[in-house]
Design a protein that fits this description.
- By secondary structure, the chain is mostly beta strands.
- Helices cover 1% and strands 54% of the residues.
- The chain contains 1 helix and 22 strands.
- The strands form 4 sheets. Strands 2, 4, 5, 7, 12, 13, 14 and 16 form an 8-stranded antiparallel beta sheet that branches. It has a 7-stranded antiparallel beta sheet with strand order 3-6-15-8-9-10-11, with no helix packed on it. The chain has a 4-stranded mixed beta sheet with strand order 1-22-19-20, with no helix packed on it.
Length: 302
């Protein structure tokens, strides 16, 4: 078995605030607590990983909407509790025929059938609307809503931020993460702390239907990451024959990875790595060459 000792050199490193992220490239839900409240009513949903690199949630149609409520399914990251928070998720695919609200949860307590409390930011692609909702015992009150002028089939990135009792919700088209499509802001003091997650729920106009969406590139932290040209290392792993680098980046920029055996002679390993709003990018390098005892890697802004 070949053992590769690696030294990592990154441009303009800076301290990082602890964050959670998942690009689902491992093809599983490790770190997530999956919540399928209708399973106990005999209507189990399905969690899957299309292409081994995204997270699909399919909620079953409600067996009795008066008793059990609408189709809904979700997942939480329960290892961290946030007061202030910054979250983002990519909505990469969904059944365009379904009237469904896709989004994120924050300051969640008591997840379960008829018990969940917290806040929700949802986007309804069919209705071209987004909502901020106060949730009490799974019942929701929309405090504010905004029109989202996008083609209903457009993949989007949702950004949800809470600072004290102020909440900001944003929608970006994945095709251009530098251009804000829609935003809304409001205040509320009902819930002060809790965990975060993602979910999809049938809209009130179509409560008898199932739900179906695919998500990617989850990110959560206590505060909004600084937008900077600096590059900092978030994760460095050797997984089998792959070197995995995750680093801070900026939407609209492009990055490359170079390596060297001696810090004198450099060669480009891979390029055209897109920056992300999230704000992290990941690159996987299989059997990095040259296969020296020690290698140095550098992430460069192109």
């Amino acid at each position: 078995m070949k053992v590769l000792s690696l030294a990592i050199i990154l441009v303009a490193q800076s301290p990082l605030t602890f964050a959670q992220s998942d690009d689902f490239d491992d093809g599983d839900s490790t770190g997530w607590t999956e919540v399928d409240v209708l399973e106990a009513a005999g209507a189990a949903g399905v969690f899957s990983f299309p292409g081994g690199n995204s997270y699909r949630m399919q909620g079953a149609a409600s067996p009795n909407q008066d008793t059990f409520g609408p189709s809904r399914i979700g997942a939480l990251r329960e290892e961290v509790t946030y007061t202030d928070f910054y979250q983002s998720i990519d909505v990469v695919n969904f059944d365009e025929a379904l009237d469904q609200n896709i989004g994120m949860l924050a300051r969640v307590k008591e997840p379960g059938l008829g018990t969940l409390d917290g806040y929700g930011f949802t986007y309804n692609p069919l209705d071209q609307q987004m909502f901020f909702t106060v949730i009490t015992d799974e019942g929701g009150t929309n405090l504010v809503e905004e029109e989202v002028l996008l083609d209903p089939g457009t993949p989007v990135r949702l950004v949800f931020q809470g600072i004290g009792d102020t909440f900001i919700c944003k929608v970006f088209a994945l095709s251009d993460l530098t251009a804000l499509v829609a935003t809304m802001e409001t205040t509320d003091s009902t819930w002060t702390t809790g965990t975060s997650g993602i979910f999809v729920v049938a809209d009130e106009n179509d409560l008898v239907s199932p739900t179906d969406c695919t998500l990617d590139n989850y990110f959560a932290a206590a505060e909004e990451p600084e937008v900077s040209t600096d590059i900092s290392l978030l994760r460095f792993d050797v997984e089998g024959d792959e070197l995995v680098l995750e680093f801070t980046s900026r939407a609209g920029e492009s990055y490359a990875v170079w390596n060297s055996p001696d810090l004198k002679f450099w060669q480009e390993v891979t390029d055209a790595i897109p920056g992300a709003l999230g704000p992290t990018s990941e690159v996987r390098i299989t059997n990095p060459e040259p296969a020296a005892t020690k290698q140095f890697f550098e992430v460069r802004l192109e």
